[in-house]
Amino acid sequence: MLLSQDKKPTLIWLQGVTCNGNTHSFLNLSYLELLLSKFELIYLPFMEVKYSFFDISKCSLSCDVLIFEGTFDPLMQRNGVLLKDILIHYANDAKHIIAVGSCASFGGMFKASAPDRNSGLLYDGDDFIGVLTKLYKKVINLSGCPIHPEWLGYTLSMIANNKNIKLDDLYRPVELYSNLSHHGCTRNEYFEWKVDAKNFGEKEGCLFYEQGCRAPMTHASCNKILWNEVSSKTRIGTPCFGCTEPDFPRENFFKTKTNMSIPQDIPLGVPKRSYLTMAGIAKTFHIKRLEGKLIDYKTTD
Amino acid sequence: MIIKQLIEQIEGEAFVSFDMKDDRVEFSTISFAHFRGMEMMLEGKNVLDALVITPRVCGICGHAHLMATVRAIEDAYKNAGFKINLTDKIQKIRELTLIMEMIQNHFKWLYMVIIPELSKIVDLSLVKEPLKGAFSASIASKIIAIFGGQWPHSSYMVPAGITCDPTDIDIVQAQNYLDELISFFEKESLGVSLEKFLSFKSCKDFNDISSDISNLEKALISIDMHHKGFSHDRFLIMGEHSFTNVSKLKHTRTFKVNSKYIKTEEAYSPNEKTYALNALYNDEYYETGSLARMMSNSIPIIKNMHRRYKDSAYSRVMARIFELGYMLNHAKKLINGIDIYEKSITKVENIEKVSAKGIGIVEAPRGPLIHKIELEMGIIKSYKIITPTQFNIGSSTPDKPTPVQLAMKGLTKEEALFVFRTFDVCSVCTTH
Amino acid sequence: MARITKAERKKSIISASLKLFSERGFYITTIPDIAQKVGMSVGNFYNYFNSKDVLAKELVMYISQYLGDNIRDINERDISTDEKIYEIVSMYFNIADEKPEMIEYFLRVYLSNREVFSDGCEGMLCVSPFVTEMMMFFNDGVESGDLYDQDFFSAFGLFMGYLGGMVFLFGEKILPEPLENYKESISQNIYNALKSR
Prior knowledge:
The complex is a heterotrimer of chains A (301), B (432) and C (197).
Chain A: H1 2-7, E1 10-15, H2 21-26, H3 32-36, E2 40-43, H4 53-56, E3 65-69, E4 77-78, E5 81-82, H5 83-93, E6 96-100, H6 101-106, E7 139-142, H7 149-160, H8 174-177, H9 188-192, E8 258-259, E9 262-263, H10 272-284, H11 288-291
Parallel strand pairs in A: 1-2, 1-3, 3-6, 6-7
Antiparallel strand pairs in A: 4-5, 8-9
Chain B: E1 2-7, E2 14-21, E3 24-31, H1 38-42, H2 50-53, H3 62-79, H4 88-119, H5 130-148, E4 157-158, E5 161-162, H6 168-190, H7 194-198, H8 212-222, E6 234-237, E7 247-250, E8 253-255, E9 262-266, E10 277-281, H9 290-296, H10 300-309, H11 313-336, E11 357-364, E12 367-376, E13 379-386, H12 388-392, H13 403-408, H14 413-422, H15 427-430
Antiparallel strand pairs in B: 1-2, 2-3, 4-5, 6-7, 7-8, 9-10, 11-12, 12-13
Chain C: H1 6-24, H2 31-38, H3 42-48, H4 52-75, H5 81-98, H6 100-110, H7 128-143, H8 152-171, H9 183-194
Helix pairs in contact in C: 1-2, 1-6, 4-5, 4-6, 4-7, 5-6, 5-9, 6-8, 8-9
């Protein structure tokens, strides 16, 4: 018994400049208790475990898995100690460093708090100039604002099971970031036939043409592994804001950037010429079913 | 003697400097160290972007920020001479998801903060099950996600509407999750039915039950928390909702309020740098949050509790638990009242036509959350946020203490640290 | 003499029919007229096109592809937007001058006999290569900051309507000067109308 207890990887969750959004998202994980039981919890910011932050800030402990949430600010102090010193102390010993959220991955929302110095652990936007670039082999980026609980659930489970996690060129697990958030969207048919949403508040229509949806350009599995196990932004009519990509946050979230009515950004990897040809032709056909309401309540009365 | 204490697990962290005299808190100051500059970040942007940015002020109450933003924008529309008509459906769904965020917050606070913290200072053995808080909160978040797509950080409220267009099955799912959550609350927390709990007339009614809540109640009494942690006995409720009575209370007397009297001022924190500002109403400090809301709603058990124990730490904790039940019950009514045939969004002018000021006030889990905006052709000229923790956990001078400073006075350090948390502190919101 | 391939044969039908349609009109021109002009039997003609309507649509696609290829070549050059406008105007007027049947067919047959093209040639179906390249041109122009961002059809109509009108006047022999002489001023007018403000 004791032996298996000893073998559990040790875990510390550290925070930089953050809103705690990743923490609260993670707390929604359906198998949270089971997952946490696979680790020896040294420090968590959201519940009391073995040590307090006071202990952590003394930099005399260590961990196998270091989770970092928030933007890294080199001048930030926590409990009177430079966050940089705390981070580097634990990062050096850790076997795995997980940057949770877009702030920790790329700088994200709180890069703007101090744009000239704040960044993610490996990246500042998509520049590979973060504080932990020397340790890049140990870093796994889980971008997203916030992360989906399952994304961290998957990553920690793989680590607990001693499995190798294959990463993309931004050090994100391919398992989670190979899909586009467009994949699995309930509005896909409207995208195919270029039927745009006339307004917010409707089930019908695609949000890519007018409402700023970034789903066809965004690596994320939001419509494959649903949020809170029930839905996703695009399913309920909110455009995807591209929060898993290094350029998040962009501007004008609710408006598609167009040049003479032509979307500036088009689905990933598709040449604009091909896209315009296809879109123009698809728009030619008026599919009556797609132009009407999905459910006609009036006739079902 | 000054003792500096780091407080964590309060949605971020804070420092409290205790000035101790004979092992009692003579005076205290509070500092919040981590500034994020959200207001500055918003300036110059299209105000619709605020619907995406402000929820990211806070991981636990971001949805309240979303609603404050949408209300501020709608107010700016009105001030610019444009009409905003919200259907009953829009209002009900917005209220519902706001309430569900409040419920997830209270569950987490109960199981992840209050019970573990209380167990440090009581002799009674309290069962610490923090993950019960996470589990129940996750069910509440599912209900938000049905309408809002996700929680945290949904942006589904937009000027004059909501982006979702729910069908019957969404309503049924939401009802089922709510029933599951109520059943959890009854079985795991209360030990009695919600209906019975809501019919309680006195704190003595807890005596007959054995449950997490009744144990908590006994534990509070056991360390005299019904005679400790008193504050000004002044309460402020500013957010207009189907579940509030916008007012201020001095003891039990109710007065009308006007948002123009809300001001902020520099915090007094001589020992430590702080980025927080204190929030006042008409130059006075008021307590905000569950106790304030429940007081203003004239609920028998709360009135009874207040008559006996005033605004003690006990009342503060128990009011928050009562509010959990109250809100679960209210949420049920809201869901049942949603008419899916109504519009999810009504006609609204392009935001670029709006040059005006606007104010959005909502009741967040911890009290009034205020967003003030100034727009020039839809672009943000200025954005000011005042959060409930700024009312409760301000740091002022000894002659004019804030609610938390007064509540901690005269207690031992350990008691004071517990009382600090009875306010349910949100550090990240405070230093937006 | 090398045997004429099927593709070449098809091409000669296209060029002969273009001329006949634009000279005589779509309804007056018959399949025997076209077969005779190409020098083939009517029966053999049907091996290439099932009907006059099918041929009519194919002609539109042929012209659209031809214009599209030319504009694409201009789009991909490393020149400024006003230079591109000049090149497009110039290309269009050259075609009107050298192969007037192409533009004539487009203006007089395609745009005037919509009933022929209502099934399978509506919207973008037959003109896609041409319109796509114009979209690319406008997109690049706005992206580079040279052109004012506005509705696509407002800009497209201004550009192509203007050119079509000039070619019409030219065809009606109303223009006092050769088309060549208008390239510069018309390009300038189009640029002035579309440039960023």
